[in-house]
Amino acid sequence: MRLGHGASLGASSEERHNCGEPVPLGGRLRSARSSHRPDELVGPSPSPEPTHRWLSLARAGAVCPPRVIPEHWPIRSCSALGRLLSQTSRVAEPHLFRVILPVSDIEAAASFYAHALGIPGDRVSAGRHYFPCGGTILACFDALADGDSEAVRPNPEHIYFSVNGLDAVRERVRDCGAADVTPIETQPWGERSFYARDPFGNPICFVDSETLFTGSSSWPTS
Predict the structure, then answer these.
(1) Which residue from 102, 153, 186, 219 has the fewest beta carbons nearer than 10 Å?
(2) Domains, the chain, ranges and CATH?
(3) What is the pLDDT of residues 183-213, one digit of tens each?
């Protein structure tokens, strides 16, 4: 893939990472090691679009400007690019605040999850019952009861709950009608957990809160 004005993502690694290669300045090639500041704008005032395009390409793997840089791109060196990327990447970490759990009977769902989770939750509409789960809302949703014309299918993948007292939770989940309840096992990634399906076909998993694997450490090797 090639870019306009002679810039190419296909440049060799030496070309891509050598920030001292010539770059265009006012129609003539000047060295990036000249007396000009490395973060100095090149050529005329840049338009926002090419800059955004370069940032997108840089984030996709072009971590340093190729050998030839169009003169309307305001990047003169790897250090300048790094500073610009760090400034544009300071985004507040998002918070997952609600997860929809499709159910076919809101009354039965409210009863099942109140028993399984040990909390009553809150009915917020005719077809929605919310359970607070550590800052994230588990939203049991009965589409027909809420006035929709079609039911919603069960989730295809598991929802994971972190809990204390895993053995007691497993007994409650089994007693209140869950299907396919597995034994408690220690998984290869270190979590102690069990799997099940709720009465509405949703796959669920309960994990001992003392054994959570969040990806912040290396994958266990033994």
Answers:
(1) 219
(2) 4-88 (no CATH), 98-211 (3.10.180.10)
(3) 999 999 999 999 999 999 999 999 999 999 9
